[in-house]
Write a structure and sequence with these properties.
About 45% of the residues lie in helices and about 25% in strands. α5 links the parallel β2 and β3. It has a single domain, classed as Rossmann fold (3-Layer(aba) Sandwich). The model has no long low-confidence stretch (mean pLDDT about 90). The protein is built from nine helices and seven strands; from the N terminus they run αααβαβαββαβαααββ. The radius of gyration is 17 Å and the shape is globular. The protein is an alpha/beta fold. Bound molecules: S-adenosylmethionine. The site of S-adenosylmethionine has 21 residues, from α1 and α4.
Length: about 230
């Protein structure tokens, strides 16, 4: 199965931005908010100065991060997602603390060693060059800073795999279609998980890029992985 190009991913997220949060809540049974909070706590266990949320989407992680950092920079290459994020950030009262920027994660407009922590939630899987994205995040992190990657993965074990297949490949695309009237973007979701790295492969890649103390935890019958690594 082939990955689709950057422009198609951008168009796809532009087309689903309005229904994105609804779909996530329904698809995760309301657990997505908890996973994001957990990811943020791992990225910044104590108060830090500058946080980066890459592929921020509608800004959910950025707002959680803003609660425990001085400043947050949140980037996404979808203009529609950034617009939704602007609304959400303002509603939550964090517009003074969060800078939203339309930018590609593969080419971040920041100097090296700018951030004290970085998060990327449900975003890494969508990059056409996962290694390039991780290298870019590594570059902009300061030393002794953490990266946290939250994403969907394929579970291990026959029963879990079967449950995952029925839910992700047979049910969720129809839920997305029903909610948005659009079919193609929600067929992309299971395909993107299919071509994504396993948790162990991602661990290996993070270590090869230079992250230390890489570990991960699994949630939701092993279909959600939260990876943590430190730039030393
Ligand atoms: C599934 S959403 C995740 C949004 C959010 N982080 C969350 O927790 O819900 C993936 C986001 O990644 C963004 N994205 C994908 N590839 C990107 C890239 N190369 N640069 C910047 N953003 C990208 C999409 O526009 C989309 O908003």
């Amino acid at each position: 199965m082939q990955k689709i190009g950057s422009k198609s991913v951008q168009d796809l997220f532009n087309s689903i931005a309005k229904r994105y949060d609804w779909f996530n809540s329904i698809a995760s049974g309301g657990m997505d908010a908890k996973w994001r909070r957990e990811a943020v706590k791992l990225a910044a266990p104590s108060f830090v100065e500058n946080g980066l949320d890459a592929a921020t989407g509608t800004g959910r992680i950025a707002v959680e991060l803003a609660k425990i950092t001085k400043n947050v920079t949140a980037v996404d290459f979808s203009s529609a997602m950034i617009q939704s994020a602007e609304k959400y950030v303002e509603q939550q009262g964090f517009d003074q603390k969060i800078s939203l920027l339309q930018s590609d994660v593969l080419n971040l407009p920041f100097r090296s060693e700018s951030f004290n922590c970085a998060t990327i939630g449900f975003g890494l899987r969508n990059l056409p060059d996962i290694q390039g994205g991780l290298q870019e995040l590594f570059r902009v992190l300061r030393y002794d800073s953490r990266i946290v990657i939250l994403d969907i993965v394929k579970p291990k074990g026959i029963i879990k795999k079967l449950m995952y297949k029925i839910f992700f490949q047979q049910i969720l695309p129809y839920v997305g279609w029903f909610l948005s009237g659009k079919r193609q973007p929600y067929q992309y979701l299971p395909n993107s998980v299919e071509t994504y790295l396993s948790p162990d492969e991602l661990t290996y890649l993070m270590e090869s890029i230079g992250f230390h103390e890489v570990s991960y935890s699994l949630k939701a019958i092993g279909s959600i992985a939260i990876h943590v690594g430190v730039k030393k």
